[in-house]
Design goal:
This protein is α/β, with parallel strands linked by helices. 50% of the residues lie in helices and 16% in strands. It has helices spanning 8-23, 72-88, 105-109, 132-150, 164-175, 192-207, 223-236, 259-271, 289-304, 312-324, 328-341, 346-358, 362-379, 384-395; strands spanning 2-6, 34-40, 45-52, 64-69, 96-100, 115-118, 123-125, 153-162, 182-186, 214-219, 245-250. An 8-stranded mixed β-sheet has the order 2-3-5-4-8-9-10-11, sandwiched between helices. The chain has a 3-stranded mixed β-sheet with strand order 1-6-7. It is elongated. Keywords: Hydrolase, Signal.
Length: 399
């Protein structure tokens, strides 16, 4: 079937945006991801996967949401940086990122066989197009079981794709909505095959009165994609399925290639829009104290469908706020809570030691510093010498 008219520039971009960048394989050894090869019986080929674990993965027992992503070789590194940045600022949880490298990109990311009619009337054919359902079967029946068997995951999955990958993200939402919990579509080719996505979306939202999913789409300065984007956005504004949330963002300063980084940034913020711990606007102090923190993450657990653990770094900041205000007992309570949450991490033990020392409980402080030093050495923590200095200070207070 024919595809609405596109420019030559866009046609080339859709075909090459992933394959050209991915042909230069990620450097070895990779410092930001593990590179694995899975033989797929579904695809009848080997598939290379990049998996990025969050910082501190090996010092906790926690499980993590998983972000599955197309064009993994092109986008995993900057996405890992975005995830880390947003997490350190308390906006999203830590996540495991799974990036799939391409073999036949057009085949895997397009839902049907189609051609593109250019403005001059000539047609561009995609001989291998139409393999999206098979690719999704590979993800659901082979890749997901591998990831969930070999990594600590929780039942919250996100799918992100760009260009044809954005098309696949939207297609998955409207054809297999329960495969993921949330979807990000950067510069999606929503007009593919005579607005196939819009037709399926109309059926989905007619059949489903409740849909607890999040969908986020973006577009740069890309006139050939504008019409189908606007049409789909107009449709989304009329949806009323219970639990369904969506967002969209036009980025006129970005083009088809550069739009991805900001798409993942804003998309992840939308998916986890209520993640940040409430704070007093003037003082910055967390609202409701420690019980407020527990209540907040209890609400997040109900919404996202898994036990959400308060992040170590955010709780530590909260503890130091209390310590800085001279509230030693409150700081000790907060740091003890953090130690309980992250017993295999050195920093909470060290922070508890500081609060105990400030309160004059030197023997208890020494025990906490000793524990921090022991764990830090085992984990090769860069702050291990600081832990040792703190331990020496309370062990030999007169020296």
């Amino acid at each position: 079937m024919k595809h609405p008219a596109f420019s030559v520039f866009l046609v080339l971009g859709l075909v090459l945006v992933g394959t050209m960048s991915i042909s230069a394989a990620a450097p070895e050894p990779m410092q930001y991801a593990e590179r694995i090869t899975i033989h797929s019986d579904v695809m009848d080929e080997d598939r290379v996967i990049l998996i990025s674990k969050p910082a501190g993965y090996d010092t906790t027992t926690a499980g993590y949401p998983v972000l599955y992503m197309t064009d993994g070789g092109a986008h995993l590194l900057h996405t890992a940086g975005t995830v880390d940045f947003l997490n350190r600022n308390g906006r999203i949880p830590q996540v495991i990122i799974v990036g799939v490298l391409n073999t036949d990109r057009t085949r895997d990311l397009t839902p049907t066989a189609a051609t593109i009619t250019q403005q001059d009337g000539n047609e561009v054919e995609f001989p291998t197009s139409g393999g999206a359902d098979r690719f999704l079967k590979f993800i659901s029946s082979e890749l997901m079981p591998y990831v969930e068997s070999n990594y600590r995951t929780v039942p919250f999955r996100i799918f992100a794709g760009h260009s044809f990958g954005g098309l696949l993200s939207a297609y998955t939402l409207v054809s297999q909505p329960d495969l993921f919990n949330a979807y990000i579509a950067a510069s999606p080719t929503l007009g593919w095959d005579d607005d196939l996505i819009l037709k399926k979306a109309k059926k989905l939202f007619t059949d489903r009165k409740e849909l607890n999913k999040t969908f986020y789409m973006t577009l740069g300065d890309e006139p050939p994609l504008q019409g189908s984007y606007d049409t789909f956005e107009k449709f989304l504004k009329k949806t009323h399925a219970k639990g369904f949330t969506w967002g969209s963002k036009q980025m006129p300063a970005e083009d088809h290639g550069s739009v991805v980084l900001r798409s993942h940034y804003f998309g992840l913020k939308k998916i986890f829009e209520d993640w940040q711990i409430p704070r007093d606007a003037e003082s910055g102090v967390i609202t409701g104290g420690l019980e407020g923190v527990k209540a907040h993450f209890g609400q997040l657990s109900k919404k996202y469908g898994y036990a959400v653990t308060p992040p170590e770094g955010q709780i530590n900041v909260f503890g130091y706020q209390a310590l800085g205000n001279g509230k030693h007992a409150e700081a000790i309570e907060i740091f003890r809570y953090n130690v309980k949450l992250s017993p295999l991490s050195a920093n909470p033990h060290d922070s508890l030691g500081e609060a105990l020392e400030a309160d004059g409980q030197l023997e208890a402080a020494r025990e906490s510093y000793a524990r921090a030093f022991e764990i830090g050495g085992r984990n090769k923590d860069p702050n291990t010498q600081v832990f040792k200095t703190n331990l020496d200070r309370v062990t030999n207070p007169g020296e």
